[in-house]
Amino acid sequence: MKIVSRNEELLRDALSCIPQPSSRTSLASCNKMIRFEDISAAAFKIQCGVQKTPCMYSRLSKQYGMDIYLKKEFLQYTGSVKERGVLYLLMSLPQDQQRKGVIVASDSNFSMAVAYHASELRIPVFVIMSTSTAPARVKMCREYGAMVISYGTAAKDSQAHARRLAQENGYLYLEEEDSAVYLSGLGTVGLEMYEQVPKLDAVIFPAGGHCGLLAGSAAALKHLNPHISIIGVESESFPVLQQSLKAGHPTEDQACNNHHFYGDVSGVCFGSNSLQLTGKLVDKVVAVREEDILISMLRLLEYERATVDAEGAIGLAALVAGKLPELKGKRVAVVICSGNLELHLLQRCIAHALTLDNRVCRFSLVIPDCPGDMAKLLEILAREEARVLDIKQERTFVTSELFTIEVVCTVETRDKIHTAQLRNALLERYPTTAWTER
């Protein structure tokens, strides 16, 4: 079945603005204008190598007043949507290059995808990582089948080493950029969502520096239905895409480099192809706070049992923050693109999100150091149905009256209203209660 687009001219106009590719990396030879046919070809070619992930109705819909569908790309084998672009890129390489092998130099989702799919295609693959890389990432890449080499203390050292090895041995040095082949692979997300959810009003994507997913999927969706609203979401701390769109060329925010929590969302805007497509085809780009991203991660864990990182949660964060009121009552798809949250960050993120959501709180008060007074405090907490997480008593350094103790208590509540009720009950019995503000 052939789908006739009413938006073909818009897509052609966007691509006519793309400058000639530079020789920045060895992928430059793959650059050409992206067409809807390229995305369709990519979908056909990679269908046996990546998951057709579900796009499911979310229980969060009632909470935010719209029909929300979550495209769960974190269910890909390496936990990232980058597999789509990487697989199509590797399958498009000449056979002689496939025999020689490829090399990458980072610990990003892109490198993880290259490690896995190159191994599956029996392409020799080498990953150069700095010595500061998390051990779990090194272990995972090796399990995917890559030869992992630790070199240098910074990313630039490992990249220089990878380029040198590529030149000496004939490997193809890969780094994530916006070649047409890579964008076409990422654009298959848009095709799948269009098939899976009829009558979509809007689709929300992560944006930031690496906006290839946004650009490629926008090309597919706008071709199929120009009335679908395409929205990108990036961090307020690193509004790289908005700055680049305003300047008319890719810009770099020095503050965003190597920000571990944000991952690819905080990366440098890496190409004119993506930027031109985004400027022509994306309807809106909004920025959200770190607090909104953390609460979004908490919502996805609670309601969807999905453990995602900042890049995966940032799309939903725009709805959590109320940045898109025009979508009330509409049918909206949100791409959850990445689930590679390192374990040492998981506990910190969820704990902080609970405090931001007014569900974990701390207070201190002074009570007489007499039998039964601590029991009275615990009785109030039990009556108010607050769960005690931690309680500490201080006798030695109390500055108030003699024979008193200071109690510092951390409790869990249901929500903001429950927290306010508990606070009022404590103030009524202990007027000097000090609430620790987050």
Write structural notes for this entry.
Pfam families: PALP. This protein is an alpha/beta fold and 438 residues long. It folds into three domains: 36-75 and 180-353, Rossmann fold (3-Layer(aba) Sandwich); 81-174, Rossmann fold (3-Layer(aba) Sandwich); 359-435, 2-Layer Sandwich (Alpha-Beta Plaits). Helix content is 43%, strand content 17%. It contains 17 helices and 14 strands. The strands form three sheets. A six-stranded mixed β-sheet has the order 1-2-10-7-8-9, sandwiched between helices. It has a four-stranded parallel β-sheet with strand order 5-4-3-6, sandwiched between helices. Helix 1 (8-16) packs antiparallel against helix 12, helix 4 crosses helix 9 (180-196) and helix 6 packs parallel to helix 7. It is globular, with a radius of gyration of 25 Å.
